[in-house]
């Protein structure tokens, strides 16, 4: 590489005579030969006796002027000084980190110095001190050769890279940096599972039946338990300590290790990564959360007080940094300032806890004492709780849920169990950390944290959620037909299943409306892929259907594509969804999803029952009996039915009778509904039968023309429920955050999707391939079940520290190779790379939760914790170290001050934007989402603020 004026190389006094071979081509031949002229003892006599280095030093002058306490060391061009430092090596590059180190080492070493400007050589010292080459003001531990263009770090480089092509080094460092960013994301996932284990610990509390409080007697209700389990960790404290540390640990540890590893001196990379990450989280991730929601969908912060308290603390922390760097003691961090910065973190925890406990809110009047049993569940409320309680499946709620999903065609027990597991995960409150773990596993091809549903199961689940007010499914009540007859228009398909020939072309599908008919109703009909695919087997359906007043039926046309190839029977699905309108109350009926089967048969068909027998619980209220039409579906046909009493009597145990079922052209399944009477008396199983007869339209009666309906008592029905509970537990266990043994961990790490190969895609395999090494390597970390998760916590934290150190070295060297300052590298490449899991996790939690609290409070909390721990803790450690050694801790303001100032301004503007969104209807009166124009304006503003932040910081740096 071309030499800059004034550049030189400091090298070991080579006792073999002459210059090392790698230096000879840089020096004039006459100068090189003079290196062989030495006095006894292998040392050349300096021309100026008494000088530590010879006259060559006096020809080198610094290109910058410095002021302050260390000016002598930074202007160490005086050849009679022992503080010669880096100015000798490169007059155009002065680095304050190196002067103290060189000054210490040159007192004991013997060095030769080659000055490329004057082509002269000089020696100093009396002892042989090996393995040092200095170049361009940076340290690199090489025995010989030209100086390296970039500084070495705490660990890297581990090979001699000086003669490697720059482009090759850039590519290697870039991909290595990206790979280690992937690795630190995965080990942070492991670290957070340990935190989840620790914070989920509970303890048993034994409650007395009567308590005396200030003379007043307080009693438990008879239905309240005497022993309860309560969580040890307060959720707010857990979020701000272990959980925030989990998501921010790479940045915090990098900042600490960088400071301690460089002799407790202030560095650029760590603190600026924290500021850059804060800007990225607040401006970019908030924008992406807004875009992640569906059109007109919005999320509003529910607990605004906690958000404002945490945001105020994070903002004050940055203002405090500006004050101590620029105003109170410029360029110096005194011990009390560092201590105050670090103590802001426990102060934040105190105020957040006080806000969470509402200490400043309404107080209980004296004498009106209340026993705090917030952890005790009310038995009446228990009925409306999710399917799982304290880690155990709640049987009654599971039964209600299964009855609901069984209304839909083709739902097996295994499907019901998978839907129940999904419901359990969906109804359990999850923090941002849980979603971040899921995000990391998603883009590394790892084990998912929630069940993966097939398309038709996903549609069934979505329909059930809508029937229960968008996710509020704690009360799994059945479809109330009579109430909806009075208040709603009920819309559903005429049949749950139809079959058509592949060459049919277009055929009609009937949609039936009943209930309230004196209003208009608007619905949407969409197609869903099954084994038949849109564009290949059928034309995509996405149609708006409007019912006029008193209109009961509508038909839509569906087109089948004939590819003239033999194929087995294939199916796809049609789904009805409601287009909401205030003046048109509409609800979906039980047949809101229709299965369409493409077959090769043109007969009227054979009609029979789908099963020979059905078991129904007496308290179920009704039973639906499937009647199927096979071996053809042409023309309209019908079949008659009647009930036959056995031990169950019509009018006492069930409502029987007779009737006729009609199959329209292409319809292949119908449901016969019989009401069951619950007489609330203990009795044995009772049975009745239903018979099919009198088929018309050319159809025939099949072999299963009778079905036995057994009304079961609750005790015998438990065996069926137990099987469903077992299946549900299996599904839940498959998606647990952590495994209990090393064998389970390694097996899960080595398999795609954690072993769920059925739902693995090509992309999943690719992601698994790239992350395979990291997943297997981290699988050897102790499982969370050992030592209550603490051993896993400590081990993974240590690995995060090691990997963060390597990332710091990689980022510094990579930035140097492409000409970027550490500040620019920190706020761009590293900040974005370390924030990638936060992007995916924040978007997931925004879509999944009903409020914006988890996303926005986590962003604000993460920013606060990063600055207070990632800057406050290393600065406090360094300040204590320097205080004990009789000096002070220097932090030049140009290393972080301007960056903090620009971020603070952008943060204020961003918070103003969020508060305006909350209070202006144009933006939807919510911080996230809302109408299309409002959300796009918000995104443009926030992204523009981030671009301005980057631009100003980069311009100031260069």
From TrEMBL:
Q: What SMART domains does the entry give?
A: Calx_beta (SM00237)
Q: What are the TM regions of this chain, as residue ranges? A: 170-195, 273-294, 306-329, 335-354, 772-791, 797-820, 827-847, 859-884, 896-916, 936-955
GO biological process, alphabetically ordered: calcium ion import across plasma membrane; integrin-mediated signaling pathway
> What are the alphabetically sorted keywords of the record?
Antiport, Calcium, Calcium transport, Calmodulin-binding, Cell membrane, Glycoprotein, Integrin, Ion transport, Membrane, Metal-binding, Repeat, Signal, Sodium, Sodium transport, Transmembrane, Transmembrane helix, Transport
Q: Where does the record place the Calx-beta domain?
A: 477-577, 594-693
Where does the record say this protein resides? Answer: Cell membrane
Q: Does the keyword Nuclease apply?
A: no
Q: How does it sit in the membrane?
A: Multi-pass membrane protein
Q: What is the reaction catalyzed?
A: Ca(2+)(in) + 3 Na(+)(out) = Ca(2+)(out) + 3 Na(+)(in)
Q: Does the keyword S-adenosyl-L-methionine belong to this entry?
A: no
**Which Gene3D superfamilies does the record associate with it?**
2.60.40.2030, NCX, central ion-binding region
- What domain of life? Eukaryota
Query: Which parts of the sequence are annotated with region: Disordered?
Result: 29-52
Gene Ontology CC terms, in alphabetical order:
axon; postsynapse; sarcolemma
* InterPro entries per UniProt: CaCA, CalX-like_sf, Calx_beta, Na_Ca_Ex, NaCa_Exmemb, NCX_ion-bd_dom_sf
User: Annotated Gene Ontology MF terms?
Assistant: calcium:sodium antiporter activity; calmodulin binding; metal ion binding
Q: Which Pfam families match?
A: Calx-beta, Na_Ca_ex
User: Which family is this protein grouped under?
Assistant: Belongs to the Ca(2+):cation antiporter (CaCA) (TC 2.A.19) family. SLC8 subfamily.
> What is the designated name of this protein?
Sodium/calcium exchanger membrane region,Na-Ca exchanger/integrin-beta4,Sodium/calcium exchanger protein
Q: Which organism is it from?
A: Cinara cedri
């Amino acid at each position: 590489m071309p030499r800059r004026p004034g550049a030189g190389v400091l090298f070991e006094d080579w006792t073999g005579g002459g210059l090392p071979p790698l230096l000879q081509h840089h020096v004039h031949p006459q100068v090189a030969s003079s290196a062989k002229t030495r006095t006894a003892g292998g040392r050349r006599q300096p021309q100026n006796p008494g000088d530590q280095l010879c006259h060559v030093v006096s020809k080198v002058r610094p290109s910058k002027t410095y002021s302050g306490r260390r000016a002598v060391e930074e202007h160490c061009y005086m050849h009679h000084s022992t503080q010669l430092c880096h100015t000798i090596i490169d007059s155009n590059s002065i680095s304050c980190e190196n002067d103290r180190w060189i000054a210490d080492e040159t007192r004991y070493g013997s060095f030769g110095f080659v000055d490329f400007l004057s082509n002269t050589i000089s020696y100093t010292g009396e002892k042989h001190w090996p393995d040092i080459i200095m170049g361009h003001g940076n340290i690199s531990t090489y025995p010989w050769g030209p100086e390296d263009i970039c500084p070495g770090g705490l660990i890297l480089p581990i090979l001699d890279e000086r003669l490697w092509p720059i482009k090759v080094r850039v590519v290697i460092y870039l991909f290595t940096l990206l790979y280690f960013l992937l690795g630190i994301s995965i080990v942070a996932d492991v670290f957070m599972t340990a935190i989840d284990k620790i914070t989920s610990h509970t303890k048993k509390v034994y409650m007395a039946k009567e308590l005396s409080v200030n003379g007043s007697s307080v009693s438990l209700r008879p239905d309240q338990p005497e022993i309860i389990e309560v969580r040890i960790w307060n959720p707010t404290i857990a979020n701000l300590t272990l959980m925030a540390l989990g998501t921010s640990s790479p940045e915090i540890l990098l900042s600490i290790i960088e400071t301690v590893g460089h002799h407790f001196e202030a560095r650029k990379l760590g603190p600026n990564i924290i500021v850059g990450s804060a800007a990225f989280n607040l401006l970019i991730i908030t924008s992406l959360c807004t875009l992640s929601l569906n059109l007109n969908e919005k999320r509003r912060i529910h607990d605004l007080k906690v958000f404002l308290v945490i945001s105020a603390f994070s903002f004050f922390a940055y203002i405090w940094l500006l004050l101590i760097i620029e105003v109170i003691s410029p360029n110096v961090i005194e011990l009390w300032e560092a201590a105050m910065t670090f103590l802001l973190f426990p102060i934040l925890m105190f105020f957040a806890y006080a806000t969470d406990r509402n200490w400043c809110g309404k107080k209980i009047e004296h004498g009106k004492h209340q026993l705090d049993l917030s952890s005790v569940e009310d038995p009446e409320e228990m009925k409306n709780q999710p399917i799982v309680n304290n880690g155990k499946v709640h049987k009654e709620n599971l039964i209600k849920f299964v009855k609901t999903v069984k209304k839909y065609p083709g739902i097996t027990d295994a499907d019901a169990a998978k839907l129940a597991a999904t419901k359990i995960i969906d109804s359990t409150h999850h923090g941002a950390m849980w979603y971040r773990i899921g995000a990391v596993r998603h883009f590394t091809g790892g084990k998912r944290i929630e069940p993966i549903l097939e398309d038709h199961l996903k549609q069934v689940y979505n329909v059930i959620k809508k029937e229960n007010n968008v996710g509020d499914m704690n009360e799994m009540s059945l479809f109330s037909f009579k109430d909806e007859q009075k208040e709603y228009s009920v819309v559903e398909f005429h049949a749950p299943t139809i079959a058509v020939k592949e060459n049919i072309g277009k055929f009609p599908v009937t949609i039936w409306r009943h209930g309230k008919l004196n209003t208009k109703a608007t619905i949407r009909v969409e197609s869903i892929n099954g084994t038949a695919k849109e564009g290949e087997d059928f034309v995509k359906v996405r149609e708006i259907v409007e019912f006029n007043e008193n209109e009961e039926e509508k038909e839509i046309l569906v087109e089948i594509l004939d590819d003239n190839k033999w194929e087995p029977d294939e199916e796809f699905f049609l789904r009805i969804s409601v287009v909401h309108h205030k003046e048109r109350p509409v609800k979906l009926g039980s047949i809101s999803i229709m299965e369409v089967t493409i077959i090769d048969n043109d007969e009227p068909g054979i009609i029979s029952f789908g099963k020979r027998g059905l078991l129904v619980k007496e308290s179920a209220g009704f039973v639906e009996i499937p009647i199927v039409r096979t071996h053809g579906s042409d023309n309209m046909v019908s079949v008659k039915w009647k009930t036959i009493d056995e031990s169950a009597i019509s009018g006492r145990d069930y409502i029987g009778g007779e009737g006729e079922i009609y199959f329209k052209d292409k319809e292949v399944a119908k449901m016969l509904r019989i009401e069951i009477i619950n007489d609330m008396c203990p009795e044995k199983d009772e049975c009745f039968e239903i018979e099919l007869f009198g088929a018309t339209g050319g159809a025939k009666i099949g072999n299963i023309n009778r079905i036995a309906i057994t009304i079961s008592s609750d005790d015998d029905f438990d065996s069926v429920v137990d099987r469903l509970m077992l299946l549900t537990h299996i599904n839940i266990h498959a998606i647990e955050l952590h495994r209990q043994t090393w064998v389970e961990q390694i097996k899960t790490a080595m398999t795609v999707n954690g072993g769920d190969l059925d739902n693995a895609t090509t992309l999943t395999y690719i992601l698994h391939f790239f992350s395979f090494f990291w997943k297997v390597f981290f699988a050897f970390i102790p499982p969370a079940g050992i030592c209550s998760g603490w051993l896993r916590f400590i081990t993974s934290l240590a690995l995060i520290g090691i990997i963060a150190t390597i990332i710091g070295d990689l980022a510094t060297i990579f930035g140097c190779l492409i000409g970027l300052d550490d500040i620019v590298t920190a706020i761009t490449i590293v900040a974005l790379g370390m924030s990638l899991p936060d992007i995916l996790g924040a978007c997931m939690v925004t879509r999944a939760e009903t409020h914006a609290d988890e996303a926005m409070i986590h962003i604000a909390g993460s920013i606060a914790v990063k600055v207070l721990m990632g800057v406050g803790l290393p600065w406090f450690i360094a300040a204590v170290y320097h205080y004990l050694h009789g000096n002070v801790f220097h932090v030049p303001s140009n290393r972080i001050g301007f960056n903090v100032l620009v971020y603070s301004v952008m943060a204020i503007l961003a918070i103003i934007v969020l508060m305006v969104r909350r209070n202006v209807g144009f933006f939807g009166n919510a911080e996230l989402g809302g109408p299309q124009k409002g959300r796009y304006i918000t995104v443009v503003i926030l992204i523009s603020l981030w671009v301005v932040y980057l631009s100003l910081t980069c311009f100031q740096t260069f």
